[in-house]
Each structure stands twice: as structure tokens, then as C-alpha cells.
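In this section we turn from sequence analysis to structure. A common task in structural bioinformatics is to predict how a protein folds when a small molecule is present, because the ligand can shape the pocket around it. The inputs are simple: the amino acid sequence and a SMILES string for the ligand, here guanosine-5'-triphosphate. Study the lines below before reading on.
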Amino acid sequence: MDRVARAPLTPLEGPTRCGFVALLGAPNAGKSTLTNQLVGTKVSIVSHKVQTTRSIVRGIALDGAAQVVLVDTPGIFAPKRRLERAMVSSAWTHAADADVIALLVDANRGLDEDIEALLGQLKDIRKPRALILNKIDLIRRDSLLALAAAITEQVPFDRVFMVSALTGDGVEDVRRWFAETVPPGPWLYPEDQVSDAPMRMLAAEITREKMFLRLHDELPYRSTVETESWKELRNGSVRIEQTIFVERESQRKIVLGKGGNTIKTISTESRKEISEIIEQPVHLFLFVKVRESWADDPERYREMGLEFPKGG
Ligand SMILES: Nc1nc2c(ncn2[C@@H]2O[C@H](COP(=O)(O)OP(=O)(O)OP(=O)(O)O)[C@@H](O)[C@H]2O)c(=O)[nH]1
């Protein structure tokens, strides 16, 4: 998918490297925005709602001979529902499994209970780890340095980066360090999958974004979108089929709207944006299905790669 601006897909000369980077951070720290910058395309959703993130692989960043798989760690927060407890515990499982850990902190928000709790957990994980202070466009340099000192006093980090995920300032250094730090090894995702998987994810995220922007609080943010099929047609256009999964029949009706009006609008907006990004005409087919109370269904967690917490 060369049309999308990104690093070259072919590894450069020399041995390849490949590994997982777990991106940890409180909700709204800027994980999605940073991922988008690292990957070079809009893969993660950036939304005004917190805790929207669901997918496990957020994106795949390429840098020279390195393939860096950015693993989702859903926002660390005080879990209330079962699903949320599963998510928080999964965040730590993923962190422990990853090759590299990156803690993203909203520098403008500073050190608070969430971050303290994260630091407490991080202490015991022996992996290369980086502290990334984000949103430096909003904060003065002296307070930034004070924050860096306050955090690294509690937990030592291999590297400290100061970035603005929004403007891209400093992000290049982060990508390079990830690329150098993931272990040597073959690429996990073949070239064609690297180009295809993010596009499918991206298309699903765009539809989800349009749906939430349209329906706001009428829909629980647990609703998901999956790209079921992606076919390149001979005439240069793409036929995409997606399913929107909701939990109840009543929600299906909300998504459809009167006379199918709501889903038509969502579909039109999503199709336009996908088409703009991939620079190809798009035919988008949306289906709405009820997946009953999957938010409390352990099978569903496993499909999403989430572990069911003990005693949860
Ligand atoms: N000023 C400024 N705003 C930023 C920066 N990075 C992210 N933001 C904003 O912060 C908000 C949250 O960013 P996201 O990337 O959605 O945060 P997140 O950590 O992925 O959030 P969840 O996935 O919901 O946990 C958005 O409004 C972003 O535009 C930055 O460097 N500077």
C-alpha cells in the first residue's frame, strides 16, 4: 500500500530485527496519536472519548531493517466492569510479554495517582524501557525537566524522550530507539500483510469513529467494527465489507436509524475518509449484528487477546 506515506517496506541491507513494544499510559496520554506518528498512517482511533482502544496490535512501524509491532495496552484506569478488569490485567500481561516497554505520560497532566500506580508496577518488569513525556507543546521546559526528574527518581528508565505526538516533534528519535532495541530476528509480518492489516484495521477504526461521532452517548463504546473483506477490484476501486457488532437489538436499531438513515450517513462519511486516505474509490458495505452481551463473555475476551482475570 505504497500510496500511504510510510517508511519503505523492504528491509534495508543487513540483519532484520523485529519485536513488540508495549505502549503504556493513562487514558488520553496520547497513545493513539503517537502510534499514528510512528506508523505513518492513521491506524489508531483518536477520539474525545477515553478508553476507546480495543485492538491488540495498534500498528506496525518500520524503520530500516526493523519491524516494530506496537502492542495495545488499553488505558490503565480504575476498573469497574468485568471487561475493564480484564483489560487492565491484560495491559500488564502484554507489558510483561513485550520486548520493550514505553511509558507514555501526559506531561501537562504531570505526576498523579495513575502514574504512581504504573511506576509501582513497572519497577518489577525487567525489560528495556523508555519514558516518553508527551504534549511538550503545552508545557514549559523547566517544569518538563522537573517532571522527568521526579519520575526517574522512582523508576530508572533506559531512555527519556520528550515529544509532541501531535506535531511529531521528537517522535523520530523514539522510532529509532525502538528499532535499535527490538531483538534481531525475522520480520513477523510479511510485507503484504504489513500493508494490508493496518488498512483493514484503519478502515474499521474509521467506521467506528464515524459511528461514535454520530451517536455519542447513545451507544456503549464497547461496540466494535470488523473489516470482514477487502477486495481490490480491477477498475482500481476497493470493495470493503464491515460488520458493526452491538450488544442488543435496541442498539442495532439505533445504528440503523429511521429508514436506515443513520447507517447511511455513517457509511458515506466513512467511505469518503477511507477513500481519501487510500486514494482509491471505495465501495463500503456495512452490516449490523447483535453479539449478545459479549462484553461479559470470556470467549470474546480471548478472541480479542484479553486474558480473563482470576477471580474476575
Ligand atoms: N497538545 C497536544 N495534544 C495531544 C498530544 N498528543 C495527543 N494529544 C491529544 O490528547 C488527546 C488524547 O490523545 P489519544 O491519542 O486519543 O490518547 P490515548 O492515550 O490513545 O487515549 P485512549 O486510547 O483513549 O486511552 C487527543 O485530543 C489528542 O489530540 C500532544 O503532543 N500535544
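The radius of gyration is 20 Å. As an exercise, try to locate the residues that line the guanosine-5'-triphosphate site and compare them with your own expectations.
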